[in-house]
Amino acid sequence: MTRVVDVISGDRFAQGESPRWDARHDELVWVDMATGTLHRGTMDSAGLTVIASIGIGGRIGCAAPISDDPDGLIVAADRGFLRVGRNGELAPTQVDVAPEGAFMNDGGCDPAGRFWAGTQSVPRAPHCSLYSLEPDGTVIERLRGVTVSNGLSFSADGRTLYYIDTLPDRAIDAFDVDARGRLGNRRRLAVVEGGNPDGLAIDEEGALWVAVWDAGQVRRYASDGRLLESIDLPAVRPTAVAFVGSTLMVTTASVGLPAPSPEDGAILAVALDVGGAPASPYGRPGV
């Protein structure tokens, strides 16, 4: 099946990451990791319009809405977590979570309101971790021995975590998750060929959509790891994906490319025949 892929952003980003649909404001939120900038934008028939860009500094991995703050976002940046107000106010929450040399990368929230984010380091080495920021503000190290913690997403009931540690195996794994957020029963779902698996999102049928860096593709996998579909993109380095109804938003990067194309670094949109939920918020559910 051939899908229509549209370039919807007039701007280009060095390393666009972590798109999230913020249903509170009908806005797309994403970050540019390479420039340390948090962006918000609105969408209409003309495309995506950036309405705010907030310089955080350092490296930003991901962001999510906050359930008890109608205007705030929780952000994983540098070695820890902070809150960002709608007008750019910064409130560090947990600063020195990761050890020296590691920095926050991709993440997202589970249905119980925990904000999960993992780390990587330069040079890359298997001494990084996956953490959860609990609704009460405490941080728990959930997984050790990570090299490049990347995409993660939870099943609708919160009992399964789908997780990508990109290197060295280029694999998608699944974990059982108990009521306290503890991980168990790790199993390998799929090994990604021809590129590096990066961000992921789950659709309403329980399938996984994965951005494949350096392959110029987004791929759909069944929850048992079977490859269901591959979509070719005009940008070679897709980084992450998110649903806006039945549209799949794809952030991309131009960083590191010797001769970027006009589409590298753009935000793309793919119309699908299946939808997905907006971003789960951080904080106690129902607050």
Automatic annotation (TrEMBL):
Alphabetized SUPFAM superfamilies for the sequence: Calcium-dependent phosphotriesterase (SSF63829)
Gene3D superfamilies: TolB, C-terminal domain
Sequence ranges assigned to domain SMP-30/Gluconolactonase/LRE-like region in this UniProt record: 16-253
PANTHER family attached to this UniProt entry: REGUCALCIN (PTHR10907:SF47)
Family: Belongs to the SMP-30/CGR1 family.
Record protein name field: SMP-30/gluconolactonase/LRE family protein
Organism for this UniProt entry: Herbiconiux aconitum
Classification of source organism: Bacteria, Bacillati, Actinomycetota, Actinomycetes, Micrococcales
